[in-house]
Amino acid sequence: MYNWIGYGNVNAPIWFLGVEEGGAEIWRHRTKTLEQSLEIRSKFHLQMDFQHVWENLYNISLSSWTGPNVWRYIAAFILEFEGRDVTVENINHYIFYAKQLGRESVN
Hints:
mainly alpha, 4 helices, about 35% helix, elongated
């Protein structure tokens, strides 16, 4: 716990992962109004394709996310689980360029 920063420290023996509704399409990127976002969210299923939601429904390119977010920790966890090198480059590629995080099908 002493090395816990934000959602965790990648080098720590324990990772904390969380997901929250941020409303980035409303507040940060402003591609939707509150009403438009709620209309879209009212049609969500229990599982949704990550890229489809952000890029097609909210009109926000995944590559536009440059700051820290929980997605990086989730991707690091998946890469480690798959036996791949967990590096900043691989994490960024997985999420923002190959767009593999939360996909319904593998590219």
